[in-house]
Amino acid sequence: GVYLVFTTAVHYARKMRGTNCSKTDPQDAFLIAELLAYGKCCRPIQRTATIMRMREGLHLYRDAAKRSHQAWQQLHAIMSRVFPEALKDRSADGICGLYTILQDSPVPADITAVPEDQWVAEHVTQGRGRAYLRKIYRLAQSAECTHPNLLCDPAMWHLQYKTWFSEQQRKENLLELLKEYLADLPAAKLVLTVPRLGELAAAAFL
């Protein structure tokens, strides 16, 4: 179980032991264990079913955030080797935009094999501007001249993107689930009145 131990009880227990009043983890562990054994100034923290579900949701959200960050770092590393200048925007929109353009041909040689005007005309239908597409094409030309033997594994490229995108969707779904749990807690309305405190921080606090 999880128990609430009052700091004043530990403070006076230190005095009775004749130790100094500073915090020391090894000594405090024994003092707290004795206070718990004798039932002095300790009470169990009661958690409702909603709180327990919310705790499980927070653990899953943290796991999804960790997996998403790892996949994003690997995806960014793969893409930055080919188009370092295009990835100055490290946001999710920047990576998604570049991936949608290059998902079929992530290797510079595949891009430059097609004339610039033809390549731009093929990709302008995806909602990207011609100036941005021409910039990507010229970056591919520069990368091909600078690193002619550069290799990029398209299978790894797609795998890391799918992993990152799926974990991002999982995070969004878990956040919506946490919002539903917060709606069932009367204390959540009070906690959410704190300025600049979002639902995720409120769920972790509660």
Throw out a few tags for this protein.
about 210 residues; mainly alpha; two-stranded antiparallel sheet; 10 helices; 2 strands; about 70% helix; about 5% strand; elongated
What would you note in describing this structure?
By secondary structure, the protein is mainly alpha-helical. It has 10 helices and 2 strands, in the order E-H-H-E-H-H-H-H-H-H-H-H. It has a two-stranded antiparallel ribbon. Helix 1 (7-17) crosses helix 2 and helix 3 (49-82) runs antiparallel to helix 8. The relative contact order is 0.11. The mean pLDDT is 78.
Give a quick rundown of the structure:
It is built from ten helices and two strands; from the N terminus they run βααβαααααααα.
Major sheet: order of its strands? 1-2
Topology as a string of helices (H) and strands (E):
EHHEHHHHHHHH
Radius of gyration: 27 Å
What oligomeric state do these chains adopt? single chain
Quick check: average pLDDT?
78
What gap, in angstroms, lies between the N and C termini? 17 Å
Largest sheet: 2 strands, antiparallel
Describe the SSE topology:
Layout: E1 3-5, H1 7-17, H2 25-37, E2 42-44, H3 49-82, H4 92-102, H5 108-112, H6 116-123, H7 130-146, H8 154-183, H9 186-191, H10 199-205
Antiparallel strand pairs: 1-2
